Amino acid sequence: MEPELVEVPDHGRRFHATRRVRLGDVDAGGRLRLAALVGALQDVATDDADDAGLDRLAGVWVARRTFVRLGRPVALHDRLDLLTFCSGTGRSWAERRTRVTDGAVVVADAASLWVYVDAVTGRPIPLGPEFTERFGESAGGRRVDSRLRHGPPPGSAVRRPWPLRAGDLDILGHVNNARALEALDDELDRSSPGAIARHLSVEYRAPVNRDDTVELASTRHHEGGLEVARVWWLVAGEPRVSATVGLDEPVARASAATPTR
Length: 261
Fold this sequence. Notes:
261 residues, alpha+beta, ten-stranded antiparallel beta sheet, 10 strands
């Protein structure tokens, strides 16, 4: 079930950024990769928090889940506008909505849940008055939960190893949230080349560390007129990250010099 994607509020803090789609952001067909899109969502969230002064506080924000509803494919050289705001809160977490547009066209609508944790212990920290002062008005008193909804992979899932690289790690020593989705892009390119993603749901259960041995598990089925791909990142058989993607029929690939839109 899709989460609620609340509308942009009339009042409260809203943060705006622009981003141009560059060569390293697109696939062989010239379209924006899912990992690059999630990276852009992550970057604008960080920029907003830093601009609001939250970078001076004791905790750090860790992604718990992200849902994205996708419109038309985004291509090389497109200039994207990202508008983000806090759309709900819990005891130690907050939901962030981000709308991505290309001109007047909405190309992605996202809702991400971020948990506020102690940088040393990794334990959740209650949201304080500094957060409420900056973000409470846009949230409008809306409360959200932090539950995860993805189940484990079935025994019939196809499995293969996924080696980690030094460039996957972030400042916390864990595989970065967006970098983890490079494995998803690779899986989709292998199994459904040219297919168009219509929705994406990602859940982060636990960190993936540099010394972990990662195995990818994946399944395919049809649901609601779309092919649905599910992928799990497993460490010692336990899911650390999982993703579900709804895919339209493949389109013909184009060269990066003449991307399809």
